[in-house]
Amino acid sequence: MEEPSDGESGRGARVAVFIGAAIVLVSLCCCAGAVAAVVTWGDDAYRRLTHDRGDTVDVGQAGRDGAFEFTVSRIDCGVDQIGDSFVNQTAVGQFCLAELTIRNVGKRPATFADALQQAYGPEGDRYAPDSAAGILANSEQQLFQNQINPGNLITGVVVYDIPRDSHIAEMELHESEHTAGLRVTT
């Protein structure tokens, strides 16, 4: 058997290095593109993906996400303060109170978390719930982090502190952070 000359083995090594460098370069470009996409479109891309998969209902209609069937009965904005004369909280802007019913239509217990329930203004601004104000608004029932057994139903209020010149145009309700979400339009 004849051994390759030094020129042939050197050429093979150069080709291997070239192919390896090309693979590394393509991988870096893909990673940079993914990072740029997340930075540029992050929430909007996620929101579009979940909206394409989730159901959409109007206020007053029932809709499902995961094991939960949600019904938002009404949304009241313009509230300045929540609580009583002893314990209360004043809004930075205005409080919007979303009154809802949650029924577990699944086969296992599931936990309702107010932090997963997002609201959106008319321009697409996303608002997170104000859990402290929510506790004051739900003095008769603990809505937050409440485990709901199959077949059971709870009612309560999710509170958002939003700018005075805005209102809630849409809500996105989730049973868990891994579900598509239910859109509720006002």
TrEMBL record:
<protein>
    <submittedName>
        <fullName>DUF4352 domain-containing protein</fullName>
    </submittedName>
</protein>
<keyword id="KW-0472">Membrane</keyword>
<dbReference type="Pfam" id="PF11611">
    <property type="entry name" value="DUF4352"/>
</dbReference>
<keyword id="KW-0812">Transmembrane</keyword>
<dbReference type="InterPro" id="IPR029050">
    <property type="entry name" value="Immunoprotect_excell_Ig-like"/>
</dbReference>
<keyword id="KW-0732">Signal</keyword>
<keyword id="KW-1133">Transmembrane helix</keyword>
<feature type="transmembrane region" description="Helical">
    <location>
        <begin position="15"/>
        <end position="39"/>
    </location>
</feature>
<feature type="domain" description="DUF4352">
    <location>
        <begin position="58"/>
        <end position="176"/>
    </location>
</feature>
<dbReference type="InterPro" id="IPR029051">
    <property type="entry name" value="DUF4352"/>
</dbReference>
